[in-house]
């Protein structure tokens, strides 16, 4: 199964994968029904989660029902338990980059959210836009969600500046990225253009860097106030394992003062 999933991820374009996954989800959820692992997004339980990874495959990480990964389930729990994202009585304007299926319908149906999605290629995007040149006004959004996008962007400084520009004062941006916390500094090399070489070095064929611990300071240099939220330390180890979270993953919670 691991080899099959790896082949699918590396050969089928992401927009097509998104469309095909809508057909596969109910079948996978039925076949893998059980009680060992639970997806906190929809509360459904399974005997196993699916493997995932463009290079090295990780076991028990892809939820059969929502197709959420570790980072999605962690973000869901943080938004649910630590913010008023779902409960605010005041309507919030939300901008969501590269919207994930795990969240798309749920966020769209939230009555307290004015929800806009954006991406260059995703079929789920309301607005087709370049993150480095956004067609939005200054200080427009209360909340920005940008999950594993910046590692794809050659000029991530410009992208961060645009995110800061369109965020309202006192607004919150959650800017998750794949990160190697053992690295002090981010590694990039523009001369690596071969997709197989990129996959080997950066972990995925369309990634252009590996972020280190300096990622948070780069966000601060743009103007954000950054909280390095190690939310798995606020959750019992039993639930970390039950929800198939990545222990020690940091959520970059950013504010514009």
Automatic annotation (TrEMBL):
The cross-references to SUPFAM superfamilies, in alphabetical order and at most eight, read: S-adenosyl-L-methionine-dependent methyltransferases
Q: Name one Pfam family in it.
A: Methyltransf_11
Sample GO molecular function, one term: S-adenosylmethionine-dependent methyltransferase activity
Q: So which domain of life are we looking at?
A: Bacteria
Q: Which GO terms describe its biological process?
A: methylation
Annotated coiled-coil segments of the chain: none
Segments forming domain Methyltransferase type:
125-174
Q: Does the keyword Methyltransferase apply?
A: yes
Query: Key word RNA-binding present in the record?
Result: no
Please provide the record's keywords in A-Z order: Methyltransferase, Transferase
Q: What name does the UniProt record give this protein? A: Methyltransferase domain-containing protein
Organism lineage string? Bacteria, Pseudomonadati, Bacteroidota, Flavobacteriia, Flavobacteriales
